[in-house]
Fold these 2 entries.
Entry 1:
Amino acid sequence: MLLGAQLRRLREGRGVSREAAGWHIRASESKISRMELGRVGFKERDVTDLLTLYGVTDSRERTALLGLAREANTPGWWHRYGDILPSWFQSYLGLEAAAKMIRSYEVQFVPGLLQTPDYARAVVLLGHSHAPADEVERRVELRMERQELLRRPQAPNLWAVIDEAVLRRPIGGVEVMRGQLDGLIEATKLPNVRLQIVPFDAGGHAAAGGAFTILRFADQELPDIIYIEQLTSAIYLDKREDIDHYAAAMERLCVEAELPARTQDILHRVKRDLDG
């Protein structure tokens, strides 16, 4: 996506049409469009030819952009889980790894980036009850490896809003849920994690349609991406009107939710309720 945005900016700066760019690399206008949206792989030869067409002669700039092309074609760490990952979720993992801000709203489960191993295992079993034990463990391992991005240098900011029902639903049983609440308490101590809870007494709220995630990237040329996961697929939205609608819903949720400063107190209270 980043390389595509750079190529689009260079093309437009030179006044070259997508049709002309496509002809130059022996491709169609639609392929140029897909390249600029980051929805197709890059051949280094095509990128080299486009940079020449766009008048990019500085060797450092050309090297940097060709480096992006090689990076874009390099499989992510999740590639080794390809046998258990649908392609539509592999796309999300790439976007998640590149994001500088992840904002999510959850109504049923703790966000995957904040799940403990036992809780994650219980969630996996809900959707894959007949899977072999080793497959279940690989799915849990994948989820734990995803969480490493919150502790890496220049980690993204995670701002999660969850419905109180998520905390009250004992996924995996009381002991698993108690451990998950402890995990959330610890997560709120991370400087790049903000967690808010929408209490039951908030009534109806802005996101009546269900869970969603907003991904924002460091490069201002890249649009936000709205991710909505379904049972066997996912929807990715990047149109301005869709982004504005979901961003407004998220802002209203943050207002309706308890303040982040209250989150630890709420988690401790729910944990006491579990203990009876």
Entry 2:
Amino acid sequence: MTAPEKTAPEKTQPLDTTAAEQLRTKVAEQLAASRARSTVLTDAVDETDLVAQHSPLMSPLVWDLAHIGSQEELWLVRDVGGREPLRPEIDGMYDAFQHSRASRVELPLLTPSETRAYVAQVREKALDVLSSSPLTGRPLEERGFAFGMIVQHEQQHDETMLATHQLRKGAPVLHAPEPPPGRPLPAREVLVPGGPFVMGTSTEPWALDNERPAHSRQVDAFWIDTAPVTNGGYLEFVEAGGYTDERWWSEAGWKHRVAAGLVAPQFWRRDGTGDWHRRRFGVVAPLRLDEPVVHVCAHEADAYAKWAGKRLPSEAEWEKAARHDPASGRSLRYPWGDDDPTPVRANLGQRHLQPAPVGAYPAGASPLGVEQLIGDVWEWTSSGWHPHPGFQVFPYAEYSEVFFGGDYRVLRGGSFGTDAAAIRGTFRNWDVPIRRQIFAGLRLARDATPAELDARGVA
């Protein structure tokens, strides 16, 4: 729902005619791309699957699609455009805060055909609003922020619908080519120098409120692995009895492991010969050892890290490893620089429907040599979900503020199911530490010892 605008991207110079038209074109293309993906995910199954609840953790796919349209109507058609409501009677039904995911299947939802007609009507109105918006002036319209927010919202729900497809039982309905091959990395870990760096952003036009503002953060020197933990690495933990040894688990983690009966990452299964397989979007295949492990919760990530003699990086450490350029001293938009993601830099947008093998994206490496920080798997950090210093709500508290504190844990970097429009070096995700259906893995870090720093001549 809309709320008073409290803060926003920094005001910039008004757009000239050419710049405004270029931005309109970009917005229209991003809106079309997000809708095309939503269509693929919902047209892939029949009406029975669309209205079914495939897991109590997830909404019916048809609810997600109508919710996408409802938010687009609220923000672009009604708020930015000032137009009359199209379907005001359904506002509450598609408000994520009024109904839990488990209960949404019981609501009198729009049918699949009604939902498709509704989102198409909303999109027609939204594009009409886009054609007349100055894309500057009012904070919500500055540099197309509201349109960018809706693009990201739809792409985020597309990733959620992709996770629902993973939980769905039945024959495969989604298909994609294999990712590029991996390669051996030059080093297992790299040293990230200590000192301050700029965390967050005040200039990224479509950054969300929890990414703001830019601020200086002091981080001590530490080591970080150049790649996420692989299936092969994690399998060693499983085979060594990691799930039955309480030493590696936190008190809360062990309690959850026992209650949930965890014995391996979600969707892993051992066959009659003792070999491990994994199920992915309806396909069961042998476990690929060089892929980043996925579908582990934060408790599993913590336990593995302790077993391996390391730890998870803090959120600030992760962002410094991903953005800090020692040569210039500045923070980059992405690990590879300031240019947008491309298919040779990162595995995004469900292009491959799986994490790519380690070493598959050398063009996406950070200046320090850390790879696959963007895409492939969300990476659990050790940090709780808190605002940056100077945080202000924009444009509504229910996106970030109401979740701060509590049991939430920060994840960074995006996954193969995250679209390029919905990820950047400052983007922050969060979830409860028991969550496994999301496309989450981990990367390890460790403290740098004084002896190691002395040997390298580092203060």
